[in-house]
Amino acid sequence: MNSLDYFNARLEATISPMDFLKSNQMDPEKYFLIDVRNGPAHVRSLTIKDANVIPEQELQNRLSEIPKDKEIIVYCWDVWCNTAAKVAKVLLERDYKVRELTGGIAAWQEMDFPVSETAQETIGSDQCGC
After folding, report:
1. Strands across the sheet with 71-75, in order?
2. Which of 37, 69, 101, 107 has the fewest CB atoms nearer than 10 Å to its CB?
């Protein structure tokens, strides 16, 4: 793979927080945003506003909640976390259209974009799985 192919693939597989925010404001029905972070609930108390909370550990049991007619945007903690990439792979293998939000929730918060307190309790373990 040459450099041009790499960057084209990277842009196809990811979306920046700014690009997602703008695009979602223009067409809010286009996307289904998923917070796939694992770990204890107290460290996941904030999520991106309007995100669906489906931890990676629960994904197999909750696939029916994810629409096939929308572009799926997944995110996890930060650039060092690969949980979103693991989830993206699983969804792509099932014919979903998926992109990863670059920088995860850390980049989102750094840009002071809207977050909300999570109201959903999940079963997941206390292990991150990154």
Report:
1. 14-15, 97-101, 71-75, 31-35, 52-53
2. 69
Here the tokens at position 67 are 């629409």
> Is 96 within a domain?
yes
Q: Which domain holds residue 104?
A: 14-117
Per the structure, the count of domains in the chain is 1
Q: How far apart are CA 115 and CA 104, in angstroms?
A: 12
**Residue 34 resides in a domain:** yes
Examine residue 39 and state whether it is found in any structural domain, yes or no: yes
pLDDT 10s per residue in the chain (130 long)? 899 999 999 999 999 999 999 999 999 999 999 999 998 877 788 999 999 999 999 999 999 999 999 999 999 999 889 999 999 999 999 999 999 999 999 999 999 999 998 754 544 455 555 6
Q: Which residues pair with 106 in a beta bridge?
A: none
Whole-prediction pTM: 0.88
**How far apart are the C-alpha atoms of 45 and 30, rounded to whole Å?**
26
